[in-house]
Amino acid sequence: MARAHKISFQKYVANLSAEAGGTPDLATQLAIRAEGAQTTAAISGDSAAAQHARRAAEILIDAETNTPNPGQITG
User: Fold this and answer.
1) Which end of the chain is least crowded, N or C, by CB within 10 Å?
2) For residue 33, what are the contacts with CB-CB under 8 A and spacing of at least 6?
């Protein structure tokens, strides 16, 4: 059951990544980031991991799709 859920989640992230113009590598990176945040939040009881994971995901997506993020310094 856990394996089926993991595969389903990875496919979901892969579809989102592709729609955003990302590669399969980006999808894998995002899935690992999300799974790590879920595990960290569950163990620590602190939802801050989700906020950090979201920011890291934004950076990964922006780098992959060459989209500057609001916090990025351009020059």
Assistant:
1) C
2) 53, 56, 57, 60
Question: Which residue type occupies 56?
Answer: A
Q: How far apart are CA 6 and CA 36, in angstroms?
A: 12
Residues 6 or more apart whose CB falls under 8 angstroms from that of 75 comprise none
Contact by Cβ (8 Å): 54, 33: no
Instruction: Report the alpha-carbon distance of residue 58 to residue 50 in Å, rounded.
Output: 12
Distance separating alpha carbons of residues 6 and 45, to the nearest angstrom: 22
Cα–Cα distance between 61 and 43 in angstroms, integer? 27
Give the pLDDT confidence of 16-69 residue by residue, as tens digits. Answer: 999 988 999 999 999 999 999 999 999 999 999 999 999 999 999 999 887 765
